[in-house]
Structures are given as structure tokens and as C-alpha cells.
Write a structure and sequence with these properties.
The complex is a heterodimer of chains A (about 240) and B (about 280). With about 240 residues, chain A is of the alpha/beta class. Chain A folds into two domains: about 160 residues, P-loop containing nucleotide triphosphate hydrolases (Rossmann fold); about 70 residues, no CATH class. Chain A is about 35% helix and about 25% strand. In chain A, the strands form two sheets. Chain A has a six-stranded mixed β-sheet with strand order 6-7-8-3-9-10, with helices on both faces. In chain A, strand 9 and strand 10 form a beta hairpin. Chain B contains twelve helices and two strands; from the N terminus they run H-H-H-H-H-E-E-H-H-H-H-H-H-H. In chain B, a hairpin with a 2-residue loop joins strand 1 and strand 2. The chains are: A alpha/beta (about 240), B mainly alpha (about 280).
């Protein structure tokens, strides 16, 4: 479970987050929605260690994530994807999986002594759900935008990460990829993961989210089940419009 | 034989630079500083009667320590800022070598650096020294090849491509950069030691801007992240002055012509063939 309490963050005179508190439970999909500039991505950056909050606390189960560096946070089981594709353009698809999964690749002596054993069959099987099983040896620069988004997802879901943060997972992808991502995320709920996503596509959120949190001007405006939230007059006025 | 030795030394030096510049994508213009630090360390230790092997290893280690110092100061800088910072570091080392006369004798340089002996065996003839240099070059190349082809080496490429994404996958970026710079600087320190013992005289002018242009030209001509390319480019570039002699150009013009040729070559490669001879990645 992720518990964010009273987070404040200002960039010069702009208050990006203003006493923001929220909870995301295991086995549930929590969607964060809100207008541009509401503080959604800043919140993700704070939870994943890329931005330091001015105050507040971030707890994942018993671990306090505040003040930790991004790589330490990943090792505690927090993985994230990005709104834009964030891959390594010179590397092949399978090499991305190795980097995402392998904890021993930073040990120089280990690497000099041991030969690499790539678990091809396991990777192929893992990538089948993402429609990428025939692309193991493809350079990521040759993948389409949708395939790259799927690969990002495949990388963070390869390890048994406890908390998965997805920043606009279906932005810019076609209907087929969208359906594939939807299926993958719904399957994940059964595997004791805590999923938090930022999404502007309301129809998608309605289909997959168990809980919706609306952020506005750095604060939680409303939270609850999708049906309640999208009929909430405050939310309609400030975010959805008429 | 002198040329073979110099090729061996510059391959070791340039392979080290390719590890930072080519594999990890760090625009490092300070590599020559580690080369100088290694050369002076080895010269001073040898003149204090320490054995060559000891001086060689300590030169590599002082290079690596300087590399750590540089990355501690600069690890958050990117692109042009990193290039400027590393260039400033090499200027700082150059000025120190020039002005710390009590230790380095400044512009007068250090003469009489002995030819190495291993375990009491005098290796005065160039043939024996060539064997030592080529052995060290081969070890450096094999080490670099093994490391860059391993999952660890892949992290350097990933670091080059996307630092933010790599840290989001649990990799300690500072540690990777520090290890990369230290290994690279170790190579430079070793090359510096070999250089000092080959020439038997060193002064600060061998470790400044013209040398930076020379080794950067080698790496860019050979191709970023290509070890084979670095070897071929070193041979080509070090043979250029010989070609000038072959063309009957008077000796007094060959010296000044070298930096002009190297700088022009670098410019031409950057404009017309940014991937170099065998490079996988563009240098621009």
C-alpha cells in the first residue's frame, strides 16, 4: 500500500503540490486525473525519487521513500513508466529486459568472470502478452510508438515490483494497443500489486480503475469510485467541464 | 621500433578515452590530464629508485584517483558543460605541472627517466620495451573488450542513451559514471607511465591541448564505442607524420604541421563521417 501524506512542493513561486495526501491499495488500480498543471507528474516524480518534496511523507508498506534516490526506490519495489517513451535507443529489446531484471549487472568482477546466460524462453513467454515475442532481437529504435510503450510496461512488470506507477500508459497509442494494455493491467490486479496511473482518457479510467483521485492545483479535489467521481459536480466544474 | 611502441601507448590511452567518450557518452576533454599525472608519477617514482612495475601500477592508480576526483566534481554536468569542465580540469593539471617547480621542474621538465627493468632484468633495447608495451596494450584491449561486451558494459551504453530511464531501473548512475571514469583514467595513467619511460624526458607541453586534439581525433576517427576502430585509427594517425617525412617535407615543418593536420582531420570527420571508421554511434 502507498500512503502519501501532506506533500508540499513549490518550484520558485509556483505551488505544484499543496498538502497532497492520498492512499493507493494493493490489488487495486488507482487512477489520478486532473487538468494540466494539477501536480500529477510532480507527485509521480516525488514518489519515484526524481523530485524532492518540501515536506510530507511517502510510505510504501513500512518503508519511508522520502529522501531516497531513484535507484534505491526501484530496489524497494517501485517501478514507473513515463508519458514519453524512455528507452535505450542503441540496445535491443532483450537487453532492456536484462537491465530491468538484473541486479548483478553493476558488479564489475562478476561480469568479467561469468558469461551471460540469457533466459530466452522466459523472455519470449513474458513478451507474448505484449505482442513483442518476435521482437526480442530488434533494436528499440525500430519499434513503433505503441510497441515502445508496451516494452516499457513489459520491463517494469518483469520483476515482482510492489508499486507500479504508470504515467499516461495509453497516450498516443492506437485502439488495439490500448486494449492490450487494458487486459495486462486488469490481469495485474490479481497479483497483489499496487497500481497507480495518471490518465486523461476518462473512458479508459472508468473501465479499469477501482478508485479515482482528482487532483486540482496541487490538492486532492475528490476521491472515490469512478461512477461517483465522474458524476461529482465539483469534478465536472473544475476538470470535466459541461 | 619507436613507432610501434608509440602506437602501443596511444592505443592504451585512446581505448581508455573511448570507454568514457564512446561507451558511456561522457564528453571527456580531460583525459590527457590523467596521462600527464601517470607520466609524472612514474617518472618521479623511478627517479627515486622504485621498480618500474611498481611505478606503472601506482601511475594507473593515481590516474584512477584523479578520475574519481573529476567525476565527484562534475557528475551532474551534461553535454557541453561537461566538456568544458573536463577541459578546465586538464588546464588545471597542466598549470600545476608547469608551476609546481619543486616537484615537476616546470618548463625544464624531468630528464633521465630510466628505461624499465623487470625484476632486475634491464630492458634497455627498444625491442624488449616494445614487448612490454604491446603486452600491456593487449591486456588493456582484452579487458576493455570483455567488460564492454558484458551486461555491465551494456549499462554504459544505456547510460549514454538515457540516464533517467536507467536510474528508474535501479542502477546507481553516480557509481556507474565513477567506475567508468576511474577505469578510463587508469588506462591513461598506465599509458602515461609507458610514455615517460619511452621518451626518458617529459615536460608539461606533452599533456595539454594538442594532445587532447590528437587522442580525440583517434577516438572519433576510429568510431565511438569501437575498440577495433580505435586501434586502426591510432595506427593511421601516428603514421601521418611519417608520411610527411616520406613526402620530403623539411623536418622543421613536420612538428608544427602535426597539430594542424590532427585538428583538420577531426573537423573533417565530424562533418563528413560522424560515425568514424567503425563507430556504432554518431559523435555529433
Amino acid at each position: 500500500m502507498l500512503q502519501v501524506s501532506n506533500i508540499n512542493k513549490s518550484f520558485h513561486s509556483t505551488h505544484a503540490l499543496n498538502g497532497c495526501s492520498l492512499t493507493a491499495n494493493s490489488n487495486k488500480i488507482t487512477a489520478i486525473v486532473g487538468p494540466n498543471g494539477a501536480g500529477k507528474t510532480t507527485l509521480f516524480n516525488i514518489v519515484s525519487g526524481y523530485t524532492k518534496p518540501d515536506s510530507g511523507s511517502i510510505l510504501l508498506s513500512d518503508n519511508n521513500l522520502r529522501g531516497l534516490r531513484p535507484h534505491d526506490i526501484y530496489r524497494l519495489g517501485v517501478a514507473r513508466t513515463w508519458q514519453q517513451v524512455n528507452l535505450f535507443k542503441s540496445l535491443l529489446v532483450w537487453q532492456h529486459l536484462v537491465i530491468a531484471e538484473n541486479n548483478n549487472d553493476s558488479k564489475i568482477i562478476n561480469n568479467l568472470i561469468h558469461h551471460e546466460n540469457t533466459p530466452w524462453q522466459r523472455y519470449k513467454k513474458h513478451l507474448k502478452d505484449y505482442g513483442l515475442d518476435n521482437y526480442l532481437k530488434t533494436q528499440v529504435g525500430s519499434l513503433s510508438f505503441g510497441q515502445s510503450k508496451l516494452l516499457q510496461l513489459a520491463m517494469v512488470l518483469l520483476r515482482n515490483n510492489q508499486l507500479i506507477l504508470l504515467d499516461e500508459p495509453i497516450a498516443g497509442v492506437n485502439h488495439v494497443v490500448q486494449q492490450r494494455i487494458e487486459k495486462i493491467l486488469l490481469n495485474l490486479k490479481k497479483r497483489n500489486r499496487t497500481l497507480v496511473l495518471i490518465e486523461h482518457n476518462i473512458e479508459f479510467v472508468k473501465k479499469i480503475a477501482d478508485k479515482v483521485i482528482v487532483l486540482n492545483q496541487g490538492k486532492v479535489l475528490a476521491e472515490g469510485k469512478p461512477t461517483e467521481i465522474f458524476n461529482n459536480q465539483k469534478v465536472i466544474n473544475s476538470y470535466l467541464g459541461t | 621500433m619507436h613507432l610501434v611502441i608509440m602506437i602501443g601507448i596511444y592505443v592504451t590511452l585512446s581505448v581508455g578515452l573511448n570507454l568514457t567518450m564512446g561507451f558511456a557518452g561522457v564528453p571527456n576533454l580531460g583525459h590527457v590530464a590523467f596521462f600527464g599525472i601517470g607520466a609524472y608519477t612514474s617518472a618521479l617514482l623511478s627517479l627515486s629508485n622504485f621498480p618500474f612495475l611498481f611505478a606503472l601500477v601506482v601511475s594507473g592508480l593515481t590516474g584512477a584517483t584523479s578520475g574519481l576526483l573529476l567525476i565527484l566534481l562534475t557528475h551532474e554536468l551534461k553535454g557541453g558543460y561537461m566538456a568544458l569542465a573536463t577541459l578546465s580540469f586538464s588546464s588545471l593539471v597542466y598549470v600545476t605541472l608547469l608551476n609546481w617547480e619543486g616537484l615537476t621542474r616546470g618548463t625544464m621538465g624531468i630528464p633521465g627517466i630510466p628505461k624499465p627493468g623487470l625484476w632486475g632484468v634491464k630492458l634497455a633495447p627498444n625491442t624488449s620495451y616494445a614487448l612490454i608495451v604491446l603486452t600491456i596494450m593487449m591486456i588493456s584491449l582484452l579487458f576493455a573488450r570483455r567488460l564492454t561486451a558484458s551486461p555491465y558494459g551494456r549499462l554504459w551504453i544505456a547510460l549514454r542513451d538515457n540516464e533517467v530511464a536507467l536510474s528508474a531501473l535501479g542502477k546507481n548512475i553516480f557509481r556507474l559514471k565513477a567506475q567508468n571514469m576511474m577505469i578510463s583514467a587508469f588506462f591513461a595513467g598506465i599509458a602515461g607511465s609507458l610514455f615517460a619511460h619511452q621518451l626518458s624526458y617529459i615536460d608539461p607541453s606533452s599533456f595539454y591541448l594538442s594532445e587532447t586534439v590528437l587522442i580525440t581525433s583517434i577516438v572519433v576517427l576510429g568510431g565511438l564505442a569501437s575498440l577495433r576502430g580505435t586501434v586502426i585509427a591510432t595506427i593511421i594517425i601516428l603514421l601521418i607524420p611519417e608520411a610527411l617525412y616520406f613526402l620530403n617535407i623539411p623536418a622543421q615543418y613536420v612538428g608544427p604541421a602535426k597539430p594542424i593536420i590532427y585538428a583538420s582531420l577531426l573537423l573533417i570527420i565530424l562533418i563528413f563521417r560522424p560515425n568514424g571508421l567503425l563507430g556504432k554511434y554518431s559523435s555529433v
